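Hi V.,

You were right to ask for the full record rather than a summary. Here it is.
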Amino acid sequence: MPIIEEAKYIWMSGKFVPWEEAKVHVLVHALHYGSAVFEGIRAYKTKRGTAVFRLREHLKRLLDSAKIYRMESPYTLEELSHVTVELIKKNGLEECYIRPLLYRGYHSLGVNPFECPVEISIAAWKWGKYLGAEALEKGVDVMVSSWNRMAPNTFPAMAKATANYANSQLIKMEAVIYGFAEGIALNHMGAVSEGSGENLFLIKDEIIYTPSLDAAVLPGITRNTIIEIARKMGYEVKETHIPREMLYIADELFFTGTAAEVTPIRSVDKIVIGNGKIGPITQKLQDEFFRIIREADPEYEHWFTFVK
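Predicted structure:
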């Protein structure tokens, strides 16, 4: 996992603050109660210049997550979009990872968060490949986690909340301790859900499957991207419930996410998927995904926010 490479500035509630001065009080509500929502966004160096990929969709999901948690953002989507572009410029970044964080700040401590101010920060820095440089080409080995995703009416899986990622950490740590790159979680009914920080796709007999949103999955922006690309390429895509054993007999498996991009899976629980190499459909989808980004394809103009 790539470490953080410090940039010059972080934007915090209206101000560009030097990186080393971007601090909060130890008693902010979010630190104690997980009362924060966030996003992960990438800006790429394309043939048409630096462009943020699907910025508006990410920021819309950020504000939707905040709404679910009854947090009113002090800034609009348009304002946050503008600030993100300005931050990339001020930091002189051609490619970067972007992390907006909307959180309840310092006022009082208690389960009732309403008196705490809602604050926001946006950071951007150079970042490599989340699962390693070779993962995109050679794939990763994963395990089915002993930890399940949250059941309905416990945590809102559709919100990208920091609290949800306590569950993700348990899934990830277990996988790492047992020598795997990642874990796949099941939902409360035992059906396939997602990775610790990635959505999952399965290919069987040239049909593409992905867990439906009621399987306790985050509605991923890259997930949506791949569904649209696959359908335009003529593939049938089914959003449905997927039993665990279907993982083992899949022809191809891959993760998607802003960090993971399109990462093939070569084995699950030490059962080899296909021939243990990136599958032909996964390869085509991965190639098309990166072609669209590399060229900032005008057909997908609405997916790009250019930094000029």
